[in-house]
Known about the structure:
Elements: E1 2-7, E2 10-13, E3 18-26, E4 31-39, E5 46-52, E6 57-59, E7 67-72, E8 77-82, E9 91-101, E10 103-108, E11 112-117
Parallel strand pairs: 2-11
Antiparallel strand pairs: 1-3, 3-8, 4-5, 4-9, 5-6, 7-8, 9-10, 9-11
Amino acid sequence: QVQLVESGGGLVQAGGSLRLSCAASGSTFHITSMAWYRQAPGKQRELVAAITRGGNTNVADSVKGRFTISIDNGKNTVFLQMGGLKPEDTAVYYCNAVYYYASRKDFWGQGTQVTVSS
Length: 118
């Protein structure tokens, strides 16, 4: 099992910055990648950015150039540095960890609210 604890959400004005953190604990050895998803009211959950243990990243076009994902493998922590925030970035942001041992399992954090005011 893997536990994920997120922090760093909050209220920020448009154009501002926030940094989200997600610390994994438990059976972290089998985590192959981590990611951030978000879900706005009335919308489906969408991938924001993902990163492998080796540092390969996948960033959604909607945030490319504004958000940066990084990972500290020693601390089993993934970060999402968000800049140039827009009101449409308002959502609950969820941390995800992909765990692979014989089969794939996805673990999720509890979510952290990011609100961008115009």
